[in-house]
Amino acid sequence: MSIVGWVLIVIGALVNFLAKPVLKKAAGEEEINETKLYTVKIVGMLLVIAGAAMIFVAGGKI
């Protein structure tokens, strides 16, 4: 269970970190839609929180 938690933390962090560059590349010359940006960042942080909760429930063991 904690392995899945670590995977969720890594995926969530990558989503949160890469949200702006990916959305900027997809938008091209236009402005980035702030609603989409913050929605993606919130989803990434929820993945991190879910992963941390899974590790906490598992007792922090790998």
Can you walk through the features of this model?
The protein is an all-alpha fold and 62 residues long. The protein has one domain (2-58). The protein contains two helices and no strands. It has helices at 2-27, 34-58. The longest helix is centred in the N-terminal third of the chain and has 26 residues, at 2-27. The mean pLDDT is 89.
Break the fold down into its secondary structure elements and pairings:
Layout: H1 2-27, H2 34-58
Helix pairs in contact: 1-2
Characteristics:
single chain, mainly alpha, elongated
Low-pLDDT runs: none
The radius of gyration over CA amounts to 14 Å
In total, the number of domains comes to 1
Q: Which structural class do you get from the secondary structure elements?
A: mainly alpha
Kindly report the average pLDDT value: 89
The CA-CA distance between the termini, in Å, is 8 Å
The residue fraction in helices comes out at over 70%
Q: Which assembly state applies to the chains in this document?
A: single chain
Strand segment count = 0
Biggest sheet details:
none
Strand percent estimate = under 5%
The helix tally amounts to 2
Shape descriptor reads elongated
Order of helices and strands: HH
